[in-house]
Amino acid sequence: MGFLRDIEEGREDDFDEDSGPRLEEKYMRLFPKIGRDFIHREDFIEILTDLMLAIDPELINRVALHDTTQAEDRALEYKRYLNNNIPGSEMYPDLIDLSED
Fold first, then answer.
1. Domain enclosing residue 16, as ranges
2. CA–CA dist 22, 66 (Å, integer)
3. Three-state DSSP class for residue 39
4. What does each C-alpha distance from 20 to 24, 35, 38, 44, 59 come to in angstroms?
5. What is each CA distance from 43 to 17, 48, 56, 75, in whole angstroms?
């Protein structure tokens, strides 16, 4: 997370207006690092579907795999924390406090 600290302290120049190619290059370098922490929603649904079919085919009829209500509710909650300057890391211990990094 050192690059976030550099940006915060004004030492990161990749975000200047005239640094388009440098910014794109940095994004391309960071993308694999960012991407390894996430799975695409449709891939996850496919994996869960295959798993449930293997365990119990009837189970798939009782699970709403495409429901995003909980994720949307959590996103709104995080947005409220951000808008009110409430550190989410105090509410959820699994969130990283970036001010310490």
1. 1-38
2. 38
3. coil
4. 6, 21, 26, 34, 50
5. 36, 9, 20, 21
Query: Could you tell me if residue 74 is inside a domain?
Result: no
- Which 3 state secondary structure label does DSSP give 92? coil
* Number of domains observed in the structure of the chain: 1
Encode pLDDT of 37-68 as tens digits.
778 889 999 999 999 999 999 888 888 888 98
Residue 71 belongs to some domain of the structure:
no
Distance CA 8, CA 53 (A): 48
Which residue is it, tokens 């990094």? 101
For residue 1, what pLDDT is reported?
Answer: 47
Q: Which two tokens stand for residue 96?
A: 């990283």
Residue from 58, 33, 60, 62 nearest 46 by CA: 60
